[in-house]
Amino acid sequence: MKKLLLTFSMVLANFAWAQFSSGIVPLTATAMTVKLDTTPTGVTITMTGDSNSMLGIGFGSVGMATGSDGFIYNSSSNRDYTFPGPMIPPTIDPSQDWTETSNTVSGSTRTVVATRSLSGSAGDFAISNTAATINIFYARKTGTGIGYHDAGRGYATLTMAATTLSTNEIVAGDKKVNFYPNPAKTTVSLKNFDKIKSIDIYEATGRKVRSIEPDQQNINVEDLKSGIYYLEIKLKDGSLSYEKLIKE
């Protein structure tokens, strides 16, 4: 039993993947909440509020400052916005970097969950996977159409604190994907590559640099710059495995 517990602990330690979270932050002026979670590969926003309202947050310490980046739930499919300035309706970003993964209503409360890369694209507020504080402004408008807020607005600070992936997000035991050598210079060999559906490789900044659907044991990494990379490995059974690769 001691050997089994030690082996399991070592597996979990090997799979621990640093991430940061703001926890659930009440936005009291609008009866909303917001939560940010980051990993080395991306950021997830979870926002709650009145189900029949437009719900929005912007990044920065000055409300609707020209050029500030925003995430707004509304009746359209767009979520990524830029503020042209105070008292001016926000404009739709040409690149919709936020991907809505969940939108549910319970009673009178809507919960919206969306993800994007840490850096987003041009004009987006870059979010790092580090301990930090992020200033936001927020607002709510009656009805789900885009428009000027009439149901409260305010400011808040999100404090990103270190945490780790929960055990139900960690793939352990015989599902673990091993690869070698690590550090690597030119190629890495995958153990049980036949179980792998795809591999996404991310820089430490969270930018995806490659997607692979391996059809053989070895993958070429020679063209990657020296540094630390994170591998998000999707297995054919639908589970995920996370690994860190050091490129020499």
UniProtKB/TrEMBL annotation:
Keyword Secreted: no
Domain Secretion system C-terminal sorting: 180-246
Annotated signal peptide: 1-18
InterPro entries referenced in this protein's UniProt entry, alphabetically: Secre_tail
Keywords: Signal
Domain of life where this protein originates: Bacteria
Any Pfam family: Por_Secre_tail
Keyword Endoplasmic reticulum appears in the UniProt entry: no
Protein name as catalogued: Por secretion system C-terminal sorting domain-containing protein
